[in-house]
TrEMBL record:
Family recorded in the similarity comment: Belongs to the PurK/PurT family.
Gene3D superfamilies in the cross-refs: 3.40.50.20, ATP-grasp fold, A domain, ATP-grasp fold, B domain
InterPro entries: ATP-grasp, ATP-grasp_carboxylate-amine, ATP_grasp_subdomain_1, PreATP-grasp_dom_sf, PurK, PurK_C, PurT/PurK_preATP-grasp, Rudment_hybrid_motif
Catalysed conversion reaction: 5-amino-1-(5-phospho-beta-D-ribosyl)imidazole + hydrogencarbonate + ATP = 5-carboxyamino-1-(5-phospho-D-ribosyl)imidazole + ADP + phosphate + 2 H(+)
UniProt subunit comment: Homodimer.
Record HAMAP family: PurK (MF_01928)
Record's keyword annotation contains Nucleotide-binding: yes
Highest taxon, organism lineage: Bacteria
Protein name (database record): N5-carboxyaminoimidazole ribonucleotide synthase
GO molecular function terms listed in the Swiss-Prot or TrEMBL record: 5-(carboxyamino)imidazole ribonucleotide synthase activity
Alphabetical keyword list: ATP-binding, Ligase, Nucleotide-binding, Purine biosynthesis
Pathway annotation from the record: Purine metabolism; IMP biosynthesis via de novo pathway; 5-amino-1-(5-phospho-D-ribosyl)imidazole-4-carboxylate from 5-amino-1-(5-phospho-D-ribosyl)imidazole (N5-CAIR route): step 1/2
Binding site for ATP: 99, 139, 144-150, 190-193, 198, 221, 274-275
Amino acid sequence: MTTVGILGGGQLARMLALAGAPLGLRFLVMDTSAEACAGQFAPLLVGDYRDESALAEFASRVDVATFDFENVPAESAQWLSARVPVFPNPRALGLAQDRLAEKTLFRELGIPVPAFADVGSRAALETALAAIGLPAILKTRRLGYDGKGQFRLKPGVGNGDSGFGEAEAAADAAWAALGPQADRVGLILEAFVPFERELSVVAVRGRDGSFRTWPLTENWHVDGVLSASLAPARVDPALAEAAIAHAGRLAEALDYVGVFALELFCRDGELLANELAPRVHNSGHWTIEGAETSQFENHLRAVLGRTSGATSMRGHACMLNWIGELPDSVSVLAEPGGHWHDYGKSTRAGRKVGHATVRADTPEALAGMLRRIGDALGRQAQVEPVIAALSR
Ligand code: ATP
Ligand code: MG
Ligand code: MG
């Protein structure tokens, strides 16, 4: 009997455990909270990721370790990797934890990125703004997720002056918001990209170097949090090929093992890389019902050194995220291609508590299902951009 250890016990660990059950796998989940929702399906070890005795117990009880949470300290992952195989490797994890290192690597690999600059001080912010201009986004280099730790610098913020005065006012506001964290987590300024669409490549690389991706996914965010995903993305096949090539190069460079997502912006038909998520990804949840093999199953197969399953999909799939609270499931379950996921979490503003996946054979049928669900739930704004994309 093989036991997979997962650091982090949120919904990703929960869905990994669910996917692993038919494979005969056991799990041990480690989380700082006794309430972690994966604990409803797998034994839960409550402990701090920096606590060596907790990590030692974790290592002694598992055959292989992986992550549901990308901000597990890279040193803890390193410490563990001396005791038990850890996938993805701690170097890949560490790189994805630092937006500056990540964007620098993208650029080295010939993967285009928005203009960016390291911001170590208020003066450096001034210099970075002069180079990058407005609008821009100041982000923490480390520990950000779901759009947290970000400040958007726009013209018109502050005193409304033009030219330097405007940038100065925006810099003041941004520094007031994030400056106090600069020493602890670092900061990076990025050009704001007025993208036409956001895309992600969800990919899996095996221990043997085999590489597969699911069809490109189109994503919509609200306030920095994923709201909806559509697969396959309605884009030119050449663009999809370029995105997949970027992901392949990245996986090779990092000797990555497991599932990851590469988030991309598309602007004027060009791709710009945003970030690498070193784990199964929210934009890949549709693969549970929409693909031959789900991202969760393939992640497990990869970290265990087994052959990855086919990533082909059937028809068209849309995932809708439920944030803060779960709506009524009736309208989703009434659709022939409707599937419901309740993560078993308590409700809290901004928290991902579940999702629905809707699958159909044609774009028209999927649009019809989404319209009915959106109307029933009063969530037209959430489904409308997906319906518009389906008619492209
Ligand atoms: P995640 O939950 O995906 O890990 P995160 O906190 O790491 O989120 P990002 O992915 O960097 O944050 O940003 C969240 C969202 O904010 C993006 O998906 C995009 O919609 C928007 N965004 C981020 N950076 C930029 C940018 N440079 N230009 C335009 N929009 C951006
Ligand atoms: Mg992120
Ligand atoms: Mg992101």
